[in-house]
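Notes, Module 5: Reading structure tokens.

Key idea: the token line is not a picture. It is a compressed description, and you learn to read it the same way you learned to read a sequence, by spotting repeated patterns. We will look at two proteins. The first is printed below with its tokens.
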Amino acid sequence: MFDITKIRGDFPILARKVNDRPLVYLDNGASAQKPQVVIDAMNIGYSQEYANVHRGLHYLSNLATDKYEAVRGKVARFLNAGSEDEIVFTTGTTEAINLISYAWAAPRFQPGDEVVLSIMEHHANIVPWHFLRERMGVVLKWVDCDANGDLDPQAVIDAIGPRTRLVAITQMSNVTGTVVDVATICHAARARGVATLVDGSQAAVHMSVDVTAMGCDFYAITGHKLYGPSGSGAIYIHRDRMDEMRPFLGGGDMIREVTRDTVTYNTAPMKFEAGTPGIIQQIGMGVALDYMMGIGMDAISAHEGALRDYTHDRLAGLNWLNVQGNSTTKGAIFSFTLQGAAHAHDISTILDKRGIAVRAGTHCAMPLMDHLGVGATCRASFAMYNTTDEADKLVDALEFCHELFG
């Protein structure tokens, strides 16, 4: 049973006040809050169990290594990967996508080869491909969403041509909340011999993910959106693609032997994990995944779906509010502007005075904002610990903004 009272009690920050108002945290699309179990695990890791991993034979090193490596299996279960050896630890989705750009794409692509992107991509899934465009002459092919914010999977498939080498696509827009049918895209791309990378930063925290059924080659997640610490993350890499990758960073752990004249690399996934990792951060992410899987991703999705529908109906009653994207398949993310002269930053500041945390700006998605014809929006993004009462407070605050700006 999904117990919202208990869940809210697990997150200590939700009990605090901001500007003498109870905190209403609706900036989860940027970063989620942390449950006490994650905070405790990290405190214990630093205060009682810290040592470097993989390199020591003493008790603390073995303990840290066991806890750290156990997270690989947790990520594999969370994503339903075929093996934990298909999981590479990263500092987050940004590093994960850059890893694929440098280690898999750069050695294989030729001038004129294509990467297919949707207009909804986060900058983290755009800039690494621009690097290849600038340095190698790779071509970026863009697929637009429609007026509702929906992305037709067939339009993405139709964009695949004889020079396409990769389709890099988000599973959920961080601006509109639109959920993309990535499975249809991935299977069609695979049938054409084209690799697929899915940005799961927004989606993985809100719904069950099955990379095996999805048929993708790469799937990236970031820990700080999954109720874990910043500086943690991972990427699923299909075993066949791992065999095609060269090392990205050089240093400890990714080697077997180094001499004056030669270097022998470790096997994957260690081959792509150089240097001392974020040990405690990854352990914290593992605890966060345990926490989510203990509640159940289907239960989380059902709660957030009801919250999405309730918030949608409340916002629809504000005829002076412009909501960007009204897809019928979306998460509980709402980007909006007020009719008139009120800037998104002003709205965000006023909401903050009432204890409500939202995001304002371009949300690291400038191509999408340009496509939507807006310079900036406010974004209210919900999580499993949010409630309909908080949605009501958001609407009340927006009505106050409307009155204030006339």
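Here is the second protein, with the sequence above and the tokens below, as before.
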Amino acid sequence: MGTVIQLKNQINDSYFQLKESVEDKLVLTEEKIKLKLNSDVELVQKMTNYHIKTGGKRLRALLTLGSAKLCGYSKGSRDVNLAACVELIHGATLMHDDVIDEGIIRRGKETLNEIWGNHSSVLIGDYLLSRCFEMMVEDGNLEVLKLLSSTSSKIAQGEVLQLQHKGEVDMLEETYLKIISAKTAELFAASTKVGAILSDVDNKEKDALEFYGRNLGLTFQIADDTLDYNSELKMFGKTVGQDFFEGKITLPIILLFQKLDLIEKENLKKIFIKEIRDKDDFEKTISLIKKYKIIEECYQKAQHYINLASNALTVFEESKEKNIFKNLTSFSLARNF
């Protein structure tokens, strides 16, 4: 047991090591976000202040700052500005997500839409995006502008694709991967590639970091979706069963459906067709997930993307930053916060 805890600590340490290695830049990123979200409109200021206070891991910003450092960027503040950009895109997508999902809790606090309503929340999400695009134009790099604007477009398309397949327990695994690739992995990939672009490295390094970020994002999302059905990890900062009660079809349900007999398949379909799922529905689903060892299978699938992400870093020489990035792949899968 002690060995397992020690391994967990080492895994989570990789996140804190990354944070520590770019601490001064992260502080400046937070200040930049606050500055950019200043508004003379009282409600806008109130809502953006609340959003900032809800915090978050700032993982995408850290990836931008860390990848810039890995590629040798040292002078200037473009990394800070672009780290703020990716966080603003992320923040906007969360606000829009909560409206679509009718979410009421995020990071342990009430969502913006729960407090101020859907209309205001959608507009504040749009406000974050517009501020982000201002900063991208100010940066003046066409490659960055093209990458981040394209990423925003893909995230929106992923959201629509998920809506299109809502409640489909027989969804193809390929469709699920398209959804999480667009909604999550694209921004991870952009976060790491941006750091390489501003460092003016070769295309080989840019492509490697983009590939790394994309596969890290896929691992991160698969882990997140799996945790929703893993009652053994209640210490995680996410409410167990949240995706289930919202009717989201994620990898555990897709893999489960593939293994069920005909009667079990029909019962699972009935559960997800319902407008509201109750605790009894959840317990039945968890029981089937345990019966068919779905959690283990999900983690095996995620391990594939961990390997891809780690292998992408071979183009870089050994360094502290490279080692942190390599360990982050395990953090994305086995984190406990």
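Summary for the second protein:
- Residues 173-198 form the longest helix (26 residues).
- The first strand starts at residue 105 and ends at 106.
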